[in-house]
Amino acid sequence: MSLQKPSLPRGTRDFGPGQVARRQYIIGIIRRTFERYGFAPLETPSFENLSTLTGKYGEEGDQLLYRVLNSGDFLSDVTPEDFSGGYRKVTPKVADKGLRYDLTVPFARYVVMNRHQLTLPFRRYQVQPVWRADRPSKGRYREFTQCDADVVGTDSLLCEAEIVLMIHEVMTALGVPYVLKLNHRGLLRALYQTLNDPAPETDLYVALDKLDKIGWDGVTQELTGRGFQPEAAAHLQALLTQATFTFTPQAMAAEGALRELRQTEAGATASAELGAVAEMLTDSGFGGWANVQLDLTLARGLSYYTGCIFEVLVPGGGVGSVSGGGRYANLTEAFGMPGLSGVGFSFGIDRLYDALEALNLFPADLDTLTQVLVVHFEEPATRAAALRTLAQVRAAGFSAELYPEPAKLKKQFAYADAKRVPHVVIIGPDELAAGTVKVKTLATGAEQTVAQADLLATLKEM
Amino acid sequence: MSLQKPSLPRGTRDFGPGQVARRQYIIGIIRRTFERYGFAPLETPSFENLSTLTGKYGEEGDQLLYRVLNSGDFLSDVTPEDFSGGYRKVTPKVADKGLRYDLTVPFARYVVMNRHQLTLPFRRYQVQPVWRADRPSKGRYREFTQCDADVVGTDSLLCEAEIVLMIHEVMTALGVPYVLKLNHRGLLRALYQTLNDPAPETDLYVALDKLDKIGWDGVTQELTGRGFQPEAAAHLQALLTQATFTFTPQAMAAEGALRELRQTEAGATASAELGAVAEMLTDSGFGGWANVQLDLTLARGLSYYTGCIFEVLVPGGGVGSVSGGGRYANLTEAFGMPGLSGVGFSFGIDRLYDALEALNLFPADLDTLTQVLVVHFEEPATRAAALRTLAQVRAAGFSAELYPEPAKLKKQFAYADAKRVPHVVIIGPDELAAGTVKVKTLATGAEQTVAQADLLATLKEM
Fold this sequence. Notes:
The structure is a homodimer. By secondary structure, chain A is α+β, with helices and mostly antiparallel strands. In chain A, 42% of the residues lie in helices and 18% in strands. At the A-B interface, helix 1, strand 1, strand 2, strand 3 and helix 4 of A face helix 1, strand 1, strand 2, strand 3 and helix 4 of B.
């Protein structure tokens, strides 16, 4: 065994104590919200058969899948011809498992495998890491955590309304400013039909999705490059002079681009659906109207979604979208179970973390893990008293430690400082003889001496 | 994309809602106990560089490591000579990462990489899945979860005493009967020295470790087969006529095999250490003496441990040990940082789960996720009332759902039954007109009608 300087694989991270506490803080808020809305937890294995994963994420996704080398002699099925045929030919023979790439495909696989036991509609949430062999960069990791919630087996727009409610509750509980952007596949289709141009529909969405980054000049260039008539591009820009609307029942009924889009059947249906969602939010006493926008240029995941689409941004957070989702018509079709509609969304923990950190929104006390340090003195009688006290403090629910050795006081206090322990309890020979305890609060330097019997009450007061 | 019947990789499992709730119940108790003892959480990446993992788990462990295929053209460095040289030659060129095999090596790697920032002694806990390409069997999975707690940077026997306290607290909180077996490397060494036989020391431990399974005849045969004199084997058996002792300060001071083992230096030191642990437990008011045994035949992990050794069994649980650990002298030596002593232990969640299930010890209400189902009626006014009520019930902290569609009552109640929702809230046209709410408790069939304003108080009472 040779000595080595250890390192982490690129794109992965350790989470030390403070980071885990902050991540658990975010995950706890999301988890409790999901559960209050009746979503039940699901966990799936970290690796799946590659037959489950491949072909579900497009060609680019297939390349980003992490494959797990078969155990034992993984070359046993590889012929010299395979070998000279290159790695694409060899891959399926040396790896039959891959790491989870998202939480949606494993969920679909689970629903199909358990379809006879599941009660529909089925609401599940899932908080687990996923892995992608992407090029690492700021905010983009090879291992990151997703928090998904989906309802399958119902077309009810109540689910869409509840997604808006849950996003509002989570972002409000985190104290983070947000913008929730909404759109509907039917409005995009109506946009395409209104342009009345034979160029391919999806090319419109691809171009529109870039508006944020490239502006109208860029979108126009992109569209004409993809075969749209300059008139169509101009019509689009004129139509979308106002592309975002406050999402209230009143605004939904008002004039503007929406009025023109409602002339098509797709647009009329989509507009009615969004109106129904807004109405249910009103009945629910929704308090986040100011944060929600209908954005006709939002075109994410269009190959997949069939109804409402969601995206959540954090202004000033320095990250992309922290949440997104939408309705899909055919979650489980690839596994031979067509016609199962659903709607779902996902929070990205890592991006939420970065946004909260950038905006300095984490509560200050998340760093406090140990609440009480008991000082360790040399004399056996003081140690016995310390152990007795320690047991009492822990039994009362406090997180507490006895410094493991009778080290110099300075060293024990430095340890408490470094661990940000708020209170140090001292039972030296004098205190022991007097039946007292000294409690020192490190942040202020304040010291108080109390009767041993009053220690727990004193700590609870603090 | 061809249709396919999906399946799970062998040795892996989905955890549905009830199972996740039960696993979280166990993990929650362990986590809260670790935190009350001042252990801080750490999370490390799911894959590590293979240079970090290989050579740490013995030859068998290396074979059980899951390797992650390099991305892109993984064959680019493989020559035809490598290929004809077989898979062992090819492995290091096609995979440079491996899945986490345990939580100890990543912890050691973390300590070394962060040694300049860490305050010693460092107490960390870690709850994460690990992966082993083992042959799956009952209770043995390829993905399973470990819960480790370690203290590094101190020799204090307080850590050993606190491990006993934590095991007792966790097993007591879970309500599961247990036997905690203790031994000490020094007592095993003393045993070997007392036999005064030139056969290799580790062969004694290997044989002794099998006593449970093969009995004394088997151990004698194993020892003589490994070169021990028949007299040494007979001496061993005589010495260990009584091999287990109640672990109290009194029993530690008493006669028997311990007296003979204390004649050697290793035995005297070990015995004094165990005595000190027992004394600290006494001072801590330890209440689990009846569960703790000193077992001179316990010889687990001997290549690794250097002081106390722990193992926890659940009588009648139908599983092997559910927890184990010990003191080690050189956690980080393989990473170029010698002399860092520590002590740690681990709970196996999957085995604890199986034991609790076998003994029927899970609390009954873990299956309840949604506490209240609100019935969905056709009339718009009743839906508005339902949505308002739903928002209030959730704001009060209950987990609640509105059935997503105005389906037949029978269907809505069947859904509540299947999800084990305890209470169904009904606001039909009659109730709406009367300003009342009907609450039905499914377990008893009891129904009560209360004023709308009293609903939350009624639910809280239930």
